[in-house]
Write a structure and sequence with these properties.
Length: 329
C-alpha cells in the first residue's frame, strides 16, 4: 500500500469488560486485508480462540492482518471479567488511547478508531477528568473546540450542542458557537471527506424554525443573519430549516451534512435511518478519529450477540477519510 491512508488504522481497545474485544475480532474476521488495522490493548482480554499476532510497530500490521489480528500489546493490571468493569484496568484503557493518538500524530497510523469506554470505571480507577472520549482527544491534541459528527451512508449530522439539558440549549447556543461549528464542519468535509464545496443545511432551533417568530425568536434575531453571513462561493449554507422536514429522502439529497441545534434533533434521525451503521467522527482534530456509535453493552458482553456493524463502518470510514485527507483540520 502506498499513498494517502497507506498506513494501518489504530484501534484502541476501550473498556475490556464490554463488547470491544469481541467486535474487534469480528471486524478483523470480516475485513482482514481490505481495511488493515491493529488493536492496542492487553492480548489476554481477547477471545481465546482468536488468531492474533503481537507486533512491535504498526507497519507490521499490513503483512499480519491477512492471517491474524495484529495486536500492539499493553499490560493491564486486571483480567477481563465480561460485563463488569474493573477500575484497575482504567490506566491501561487511557494508555491505549494515548498510544493511538501518538501513533496517528506521528504518521505511523493513518487514523484512530476508538472502541467504547466506560467513564465511571475511568473516574474510579484513574481520576479521569474528562466528560468522554471526545474531550480527552481534544485535550491530547491541544484543541479548544472540536465537533462531533454522526455519519452513515444515509446521513451526516452535527449537533451544535451535545450533552446538556434541553432547557440550557438556548443559552449555550450562541452566534460564536454556531459559527465555529459551521466552520469546523465545512473544513472537515473538505479536508477529510474530499468535498471541495460542501453543502450544509442548518436546522432551526424552534418548531417550524420559529414560524416567523410565532414559535420562538432566535431564528429572526440572529440565526437567519448568521447563515447569510457565512454563505460563500466555497460553501453552500442553507436554513434555518424546520427540523421535521429536513431528514426525508428528497431533503437529504440536497446537503452533505446537517447541523442541528441539540443532541436529539441530530441523533434521532440518524439512529432511525441507519441504527447499526452510524459512526461517531470527531472533526477539528489534527488527525482522523472515528468510533462506533454505541456503548460498552455490558449486558451482552461474552454472549456472542454483539453486532460489529458500527465498528466495521467506523474502520471503513476512517480508511476512506485517510484516503481523502489533504491536510490536518
Amino acid at each position: 500500500m502506498t499513498g494517502p491512508g497507506a498506513q494501518p488504522i489504530a484501534l484502541s481497545c476501550g473498556e475490556p469488560a464490554g463488547i470491544g474485544p469481541e467486535i474487534a475480532t469480528k471486524a478483523w474476521q470480516l475485513l482482514q486485508e481490505s481495511c488493515p488495522f491493529f488493536w492496542i490493548g492487553d492480548p489476554r482480554h481477547l477471545p481465546a480462540d482468536l488468531p492474533h499476532q503481537l507486533i512491535q510497530h504498526p507497519n507490521e500490521a499490513l503483512a499480519t492482518c491477512a492471517t491474524a489480528l495484529p495486536v500492539l500489546p499493553l499490560d493491564f493490571a486486571g483480567d477481563r471479567v465480561k460485563g463488569r468493569a474493573d477500575p484497575a484496568n482504567s490506566p491501561g484503557v487511557i494508555k491505549a488511547i494515548e498510544c493511538g493518538v501518538d501513533l496517528v500524530k506521528s504518521g505511523a497510523a493513518s487514523a484512530l478508531c476508538t472502541a467504547p469506554i466506560h467513564k465511571k470505571a475511568l473516574i474510579d480507577g484513574a481520576d479521569f477528568a474528562f466528560p468522554g472520549h471526545t474531550e480527552f482527544l481534544a485535550h491530547l491534541a491541544g484543541r479548544s473546540r472540536v465537533v462531533m459528527m454522526l455519519a452513515s451512508p444515509a446521513l451526516r449530522v452535527v449537533p451544535a450542542t451535545i450533552h446538556i439539558a434541553l432547557r440550557d440549549v438556548p443559552h449555550v447556543l450562541t452566534p460564536d458557537l454556531l459559527r465555529e461549528v459551521i466552520a469546523i464542519t465545512a473544513q472537515g468535509l473538505r479536508s477529510q471527506f474530499g468535498i471541495a464545496q460542501p453543502r450544509i443545511s442548518v436546522a432551526g432551533l424552534n418548531p417550524h424554525a420559529g414560524e416567523g417568530g410565532a414559535m420562538g425568536q432566535e431564528e429572526l434575531l440572529w440565526i437567519n443573519d448568521l447563515i447569510r453571513e457565512l454563505n460563500s462561493d466555497s460553501l453552500t449554507l442553507t436554513g434555518p430549516h424546520p427540523a421535521d422536514t429536513l431528514f426525508h429522502a428528497a431533503a437529504r439529497a440536497r446537503y452533505d451534512a446537517a447541523i442541528c441545534m441539540y443532541h436529539d434533533q441530530a441523533l434521532i434521525p440518524i439512529k432511525t435511518l441507519d441504527f447499526d451503521r452510524g459512526v461517531n467522527v470527531t472533526l477539528g482534530l489534527p488527525f482522523i478519529r472515528t468510533s462506533p456509535d454505541h456503548g460498552t453493552a455490558f449486558d451482552i458482553a461474552g454472549t456472542g450477540q454483539a453486532n460489529p456493524s458500527s465498528l466495521i463502518e467506523a474502520l471503513k470510514l476512517a480508511q476512506t477519510m485517510a484516503q481523502h485527507s489533504t491536510s490536518p483540520t
